[in-house]
Specification:
By secondary structure, this protein is α/β, with parallel strands linked by helices. The protein contains 14 helices and 12 strands. A 12-stranded parallel β-sheet has the order 1-2-3-4-5-6-7-8-9-10-11-12.
Length: 436
């Protein structure tokens, strides 16, 4: 039987079996037929990363690299139409020349973007602050952010003042100049010392995200200014890290109190506590969830140390366990019981000289205190679907090839007396960094 063209269903079936990152397979598909070529091309060029040029001989100046990229995009409009995700990265800019280079030309050619990532990460000890980025580049980024197709914005090491500047540089998107910018997802990662930034000015309009991820340490500097930039009234998904009591207070008073009608999915990670310096007081688990009637899914992420030379209770297990117990104890009081509860437990990879026995002690110490609490829930007929996802070190097999299976069995035994419906599974390494 002969076909004039491959059926779309067959094309989709072939390409859905090609995993991300398998560019050679996609290129092979593109050589088969025009229909496969177009579909494979969309996958191959879906994401574009603009970053400092690699070392080569003769050396390339940033200006020459940008001109080369702009020429390629100008001669291949069919490629620019495929790009849905743009990442502007300053990583590896050890000479400090990349950020001050005008990259607006290539950026302006991408008119179908759905996601914009701006990464001002420190590389090789050379920070690249947002303020150093060329003004024309910032304007081009703001113009892309105004696209009707834009759905996601991710900022890494960009201070809140940088986000305000982006919003100020955006062209008018509709007749109402103060109309908010609605996004499906806003992600912000910032570190101590560069959270607010200099000369923060209130932007002409705010962002209204459906999903918000705040990886900020500490959170408290955002308390007075976050509302100037982000409108939380429509927020449905919240992903946040806590490390101190002040972080918990911020989550309660600044975030949860403004999402009482809409928040459906809450993801909290207890940051690893620095016990060697002991300069901070760990959070105690004081969050109140009884004013969130729409909340149906709660995910709690924490790390437990695996080190037989140091007592689990002394190293910090007691603080982790206390935070977890106190947080879970407040769930039953919620006005609308949570239907889905996920516990993400990451075993810290300190495995040199460790044994299955020491891992068993760590897991039992971490989970056993939860059993009486969960039993109380069952008696009160409050039984959310509970999933425990265990994240083990990548090289745990070097200790014992059977340790992965043993670890899952240990956790199942701890919860076994409660309900067979509790799901215990191992999580893949990258899953702890997944998006909501």
């Amino acid at each position: 039987m002969q076909f004039d063209a491959l059926p779309p269903e067959l094309v989709d079936l072939v390409l859905q079996h090609v995993e991300d990152g398998q560019d050679s397979s996609l290129k092979a598909c593109a050589s088969v037929s025009k229909r496969l070529r177009l579909a494979a091309q969309r996958r191959l060029f879906e994401s574009l990363q603009i970053m400092p040029p690699e070392r080569r001989w003769p050396p390339w100046t940033p200006k020459e690299a940008v001109a080369e990229l702009d020429a390629v995009l100008a001669s291949s409009p069919e490629l620019t139409s495929c790009v849905r995700r743009l990442t502007l990265s300053t990583a590896a800019d050890s000479a400090g020349q990349w950020a001050v280079t005008d990259v607006s030309g290539p950026i302006a050619r991408l008119d179908r973007l759905r996601m914009l990532v701006i990464a001002c990460d420190t590389a090789y000890g050379h920070p690249c602050p947002w303020a150093d980025i060329h003004t024309a580049t910032k304007t081009a980024l703001a113009t892309r952010l105004a696209l009707a197709t834009m759905r996601e914005l991710e900022l890494r090491a960009v201070p809140l003042a940088g986000l305000c500047e982006l919003l100020t540089l955006m062209p008018a998107r509709d007749p109402e100049l103060c109309a908010p910018l609605r996004l499906a997802r806003l992600s912000m990662s910032m570190w101590e010392g560069d959270i607010i930034g200099p000369q923060l000015r209130r932007p002409p309009f705010r962002i209204v995200p459906d999903s918000l991820m705040l990886y900020v340490t500490p959170l408290s500097p955002l308390k007075e200014r976050l509302a100037d930039v982000i409108d939380l009234s429509a927020l449905r998904h919240l992903q946040v890290r806590v490390k101190t009591p002040a972080d918990e207070e911020f989550v309660q008073d600044t975030l949860l109190s403004h999402t009482t009608r809409t928040l459906a999915h809450l993801w909290i990670k207890l940051e690893h506590f620095s016990f060697d310096k002991y300069t901070n007081t760990p959070p105690a688990g004081t969050l109140t969830l009884d004013a969130l009637p729409a909340l149906h899914t709660l995910e709690l992420c924490l790390a437990v140390p695996w080190d037989s030379d140091m007592s689990f209770q002394v190293l910090g297990g007691s603080h982790t366990s206390t935070w977890l117990r106190n947080t879970l104890a407040r769930i039953a009081a919620a006005s609308s019981p949570i239907r889905r509860l996920l516990l993400w437990v990451r075993v810290e990879p300190n495995i040199a000289g460790e044994t299955s026995r020491s891992l068993e002690k760590v897991l039992v110490d971490a989970f056993e205190p939860l059993v009486p609490l969960l039993r109380t829930w069952a008696h009160a007929r409050f039984e959310p679907a509970l999933t425990v996802r265990l994240h083990l070190p990548d090289d745990v097999d070097e200790v014992d090839p059977d340790m992965r299976t043993d670890a899952l069995d240990i956790v199942r035994d701890v919860f076994g007396e409660l309900d067979n419906s509790i799901v215990v599974e191992e999580e893949v390494p990258c899953a702890m960094r997944r998006r909501i």
